[in-house]
Design goal:
7-stranded mixed sheet; 128 residues; 4-stranded antiparallel sheet; globular; mainly beta; 49% strand; 0% helix
């Protein structure tokens, strides 16, 4: 059973930065995609970013492209989400997700149902 443990959330002023971490208890396959979703109060959970672990290739939602960076550390079995130029509308609970799948250079999982494992979530609050 794969467990995902997030950390790094908190309160930050608009324009500031935070880095979220997600430790993976066990990667059962080299074909492993990881990502982040977020859910703001009263809104649907939405895709933020994804990375194919073996290739290091990444994909972002339009709302965070250019501000957020997803990356992975193989030695630590940890994926990160570096968030810069934060805005109040980035306020949400952020969830780490993982999927066992076959790497594709042209496709990234961006739907909730495409992911096999979910973390508990970490709160990010951006004040104006």
């Amino acid at each position: 059973q794969v467990q995902l443990i997030e950390s790094g959330g908190g309160l930050v002023q608009a324009g500031g930065s935070l880095r979220l971490s997600c430790a993976v208890s066990a990667r059962t396959s080299s074909s492993f995609a990881m990502g982040w979703f977020r859910q703001a109060p009263g809104k649907e959970r939405e895709f933020v970013a994804a990375i194919w672990w073996s290739a290091g290739s990444t994909y972002y939602s339009d709302s965070v492209k250019g501000r957020f960076t997803i990356s992975g550390d193989n030695a630590k079995n940890t994926v990160y989400l570096q968030m810069n130029s934060l805005k109040p509308e980035d306020t949400a609970v952020y969830y780490c997700v993982a999927k066992i799948g076959v790497y594709s250079s042209t496709w990234y999982p961006t739907e909730r149902y495409e992911y096999d494992y979910w973390g508990q979530g970490t709160q990010v609050t951006v004040s104006s």
